[in-house]
Amino acid sequence: MSVQLRFRDLTLGYERHPAVHHLDGVVEEGALLAVCGPNGAGKSTLMKAISGALRPLHGSIDRAGLDPRDIAYLPQSAEIDRSFPIHVYDMVAMGLWRRAGLFGGIGRADRARIGEAIAAVGLEGFENRPIGTLSGGQMQRTLFARLLLQDARLILLDEPFTALDAKTMSDLLDLVRRWHGEKRTVLAVLHDFDLVRAHFPQTLLLARSAVAWGPTAEALAPENLLKARRMGEAWDETAQPCEAAA
Ligand SMILES: Nc1ncnc2c1ncn2[C@@H]1O[C@H](COP(=O)(O)OP(=O)(O)OP(=O)(O)O)[C@@H](O)[C@H]1O
């Protein structure tokens, strides 16, 4: 397997205050990797940096030459503006924009693909609904349909299953498994360890620095979870920038 992502002494943060410290490691192409850790561990920060939305303070991320259009990023639901006046159909169609271009126009084949994506997430009949009127689960289905159309090689999901009922979670998990079967690289921030143990072969346990990274059963061993929790309790939000990032 070739390497899709390589982190070299990666330090990330905001105004020089690191949120992720000195991360080294690789994610292989086709990996299905869970990113776990306490609140404030730097998980979302890492996702943003991989997507290209946040520049490293120090160190680097090598994406193996991947075109930015081949990276799909689903932010935490709290970061998505549901008041934006757009319907489900257009929201899903946005998944094509990066390839077709904003003014490229949508042809018959594209319309068929949009319809297929909407059907794949079980949202037929919702095409003309403004996204502001959707339930949380319906909104997440809409965003997954958009991801389907993006057809990306690297898929970044930030807490994709939070506050979903069992049926919605199972349906969306099927899509993640489908992407994994298609040898796409999938990283997902998750808090549910049972879900991670059942469905994610690899885990990065993060508590600002890597506590463990490897096969899920080993990474989520009780001693590692305890270490991550202790590191989380010891955080000092007012600490000075670390030297490597200064
Ligand atoms: N835009 C920002 N400006 C300043 N600090 C930020 C910003 N975003 C995040 N942080 C800080 O960076 C640290 C890591 O935050 P991050 O959101 O990456 O954690 P997380 O592991 O995703 O947490 P959670 O599980 O609560 O979502 C936190 O201390 C947070 O307060």
TrEMBL record:
InterPro entries: AAA+_ATPase, ABC_transporter-like_ATP-bd, AztA-like, Metal_Ion_Import_ABC, P-loop_NTPase
GO aspect biological process, one term: zinc ion transport
PROSITE patterns reported for this sequence: ABC_TRANSPORTER_2
Pfam family, one: ABC_tran
Domain ABC transporter residue range list: 5-233
Annotated SMART domains: AAA
Keyword line: ATP-binding, Ion transport, Nucleotide-binding, Transport, Zinc, Zinc transport
GO molecular function annotations of the record: ATP binding; ATP hydrolysis activity
Family: Belongs to the ABC transporter superfamily.
Protein name in the entry: ABC transporter ATP-binding protein
Organism: Azorhizobium caulinodans (strain ATCC 43989 / DSM 5975 / JCM 20966 / LMG 6465 / NBRC 14845 / NCIMB 13405 / ORS 571)
